[in-house]
């Protein structure tokens, strides 16, 4: 109970929320890092997944390779990148490690979504004279959107939790609260930092879930539920 009360005391102390080392500033850094890495990983994974899903070739190999990457710990990738010349360039090792971490769910879900599109609908669209590009953007992507959005949501939540690693190499974000707590031998601060990250991840999950339901066409909302 003493630890819990100490954690609550830390969380309710206004000084811990303001300033450069405060929660709000670290939260802004964490948000920026999360969405920057999510955007970069989406720019890499989604075009590949959509193209392979449309063509129906090479997708299984790409998905398997991406899933193999999940077995490699992000921290191990980060350490290896720090040992390369990239280690001289500030946050780039962290960004690259997080982008590689976010690619598998984006690639897998988008590819599976494209391949699960009803082929009768695809053939009907071709029969109407649609080109390949029109078929992708007017038929396949809208029908695959529930799974594509699910992949984005999974990647975003995973990034929120994993971006705390940035603090280990001097980066910003909520992880700095936890590492500062370790340096100060302050268990309440370490636990408070972990609680904040967990709550942030849950809020991110809820926000993307609501956004997914809101953006999905009416016929797809039952599938999302």
Automatic annotation (TrEMBL):
Location (main, coarse): membrane
Keywords, comma-separated and alphabetical: Membrane, Transmembrane, Transmembrane helix, Transport
Subcellular location as annotated: Cell membrane; Membrane
Residue span(s) of domain ABC transmembrane type-1: 27-208
Keyword Transmembrane belongs to the record: yes
InterPro entries linked: ABC_transp_perm/SBD, MetI-like, MetI-like_sf
Residues that span the membrane, as ranges: 31-53, 65-86, 92-114, 160-178, 190-208
Membrane topology type: Multi-pass membrane protein
Example GO BP: glycine betaine transport
Stored Pfam families: BPD_transp_1
GO CC, one annotated term: plasma membrane
Family: Belongs to the binding-protein-dependent transport system permease family.
PANTHER family, sorted: GLYCINE BETAINE/L-PROLINE TRANSPORT SYSTEM PERMEASE PROTEIN PROW, POSSIBLE OSMOPROTECTANT (GLYCINE BETAINE_CARNITINE_CHOLINE_L-PROLINE) TRANSPORT INTEGRAL MEMBRANE PROTEIN ABC TRANSPORTER PROZ
Record protein name field: ABC transporter permease
Organism: Streptomyces natalensis ATCC 27448
